[in-house]
């Protein structure tokens, strides 16, 4: 039976973290992707990855950003939305090189837990790209700010990151760029942690109970 190659050592990403760990003791890697379209489960590809880290409700200075050569044309509407053109990615790394660089950034910063806004979309994009290139990987716990917002404000059902950031009074960076959206998500996440702690939700176990989408993407 054919076994896919590991993309990254499991022990370096999937850590044994006590569930009673207070969130202030964790380092969170907040990430985002831009893609050639929304059908990432089939034919669309990643064209940018951005990330930043949070610890003790503070956004750390060191960021990560890379364009990705998708090995296909970028539609005009995506270029219009993101500003990323075929020329932008012509000399960019392959998707596997880019993902490995992102994993190195997360590991180097001791990112215990990943966080995204509508993170299931980004994880599916990673999943398909990794599988397409005949690799496999185990990812760490991943939380979705959509779930955290939904817990705090159950009536909210929109996906729009900018609206949530505005409603929770957090900073808004340039939209539809992976690093800009990661930074916006990071500042929103810090605000959400304050509100969650006010409700007694302080530990990793609490955050996992509210949002652990990794259970659907444990091993790719």
SSE order and pairing:
Elements: E1 5-6, H1 10-13, E2 27-35, E3 46-55, E4 58-67, H2 76-82, H3 86-89, H4 95-108, E5 113-116, H5 119-132, E6 135-136, E7 142-144, H6 145-152, H7 161-167, H8 178-198, H9 204-210
Parallel strand pairs: 1-6, 2-5, 5-7
Antiparallel strand pairs: 2-3, 3-4
Q: Would you tell me the structural class of the helices and strands?
A: alpha/beta
**Structural domains: how many:** 1
Strand order within the widest sheet?
A: 4-3-2-5-7
- Our measurement of the CA-to-CA distance between the termini, rounded to an integer number of angstroms, reads 17 Å
**Looking at the structure, what is the overall shape?**
globular
Task: Enumerate the spans where pLDDT stays under 50 for 5 or more consecutive residues.
Answer: none
Series of secondary-structure elements, N-terminal to C-terminal: EHEEEHHHEHEEHHHH
Average pLDDT reading:
92
What would you say the CATH architecture is? 2-Layer Sandwich
Major pleated sheet? 5 strands, mixed
Instruction: Please identify which CATH superfamily we are dealing with.
Output: Ribonuclease H-like superfamily/Ribonuclease H
CATH fold call: Nucleotidyltransferase, domain 5
Fraction of residues in helix: 25-40%
The number of distinct β-strands equals: 7
β-sheet strand percentage: 15-25%
User: What is the level 1 CATH name?
Assistant: Alpha Beta
Number of helices: 9
GO cellular component, one term: cytosol
Organism: Halalkalibacter krulwichiae
Keywords: Exonuclease, Hydrolase, Nuclease, Nucleotidyltransferase, Transferase
Protein name: DNA polymerase III PolC-type
């Amino acid at each position: 039976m054919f076994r896919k190659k590991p993309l990254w050592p499991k022990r370096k990403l999937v850590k044994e973290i006590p569930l009673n760990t207070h969130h202030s003791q964790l380092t969170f890697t907040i990430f985002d992707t831009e893609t050639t379209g929304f059908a990432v489960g089939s034919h669309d590809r990643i064209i940018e990855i951005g990330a930043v880290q949070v610890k003790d409700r503070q956004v750390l200075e060191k960021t990560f950003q890379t364009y990705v050569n998708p090995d296909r044309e970028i539609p005009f509407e995506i270029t219009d939305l993101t500003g990323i053109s075929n020329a932008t990615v012509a000399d960019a790394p392959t998707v596997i090189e880019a993902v490995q660089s992102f994993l190195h950034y997360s590991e180097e910063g001791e990112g215990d837990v990943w966080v995204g806004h509508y993170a299931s979309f980004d994880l599916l994009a990673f999943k398909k790209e990794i599988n397409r290139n005949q690799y496999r990987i185990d990812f760490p716990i991943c939380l979705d700010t959509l779930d955290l917002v939904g817990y705090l404000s159950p009536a909210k059902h929109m996906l729009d990151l900018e609206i949530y950031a505005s409603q929770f009074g957090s900073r808004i960076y340039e939209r539809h760029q992976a690093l800009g959206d990661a930074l916006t998500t990071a500042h929103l996440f810090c605000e959400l942690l304050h509100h969650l702690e006010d409700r007694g939700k302080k530990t990793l176990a609490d955050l996992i109970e509210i949002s652990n989408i990794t259970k659907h993407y444990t091993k790719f």
